[in-house]
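In this supplementary section we document a worked example of the pipeline. Step one takes a protein sequence of length 143 as its only input; no multiple sequence alignment statistics are reported here. Step two produces a three-dimensional model, which step three serialises into structure tokens for compact storage. The input and output of this example are shown verbatim.
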Amino acid sequence: MPRLQFEVPARLAFATEIQIYISHVNQGGHLDNAQLLTLVSEARVRFFKSLGYREGDVAGHPIVVADIGAQYKSEGFHGETMRVAMQPTDLNRYGFDLLFLMSDVDSGREVARGKIGVVFTDRQTRRATPMPEGVRAQLMALA
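The serialised model returned by step three reads:
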């Protein structure tokens, strides 16, 4: 199977800092796979909050994560503070991709990069629904 590769743009519109706690570390002493997803999910929630939304109500629609992929560049360790930068890309009718880049604040060392596929849903039918135009405009302004 070919390795996942993610090209990260030079400019990332959003960033937040998140500390690696002991509960994020596995028996190998570094950031656990599942906990990477936890940290990236927290950053995604903060991204939507920066736009004025909760994930359960983005301009009247909940969002779901359709897919996620990550490429590790180095290890993350207990006590380090990660900077998780994000950029919305590949807007489509039903959603967009949210690229992320995670790096250690103190050293600048890149820990991981990847993308999250976000899809808007209808609250009643729980099916994909077109992205609200107001949200599309906000995301396009970040490009």
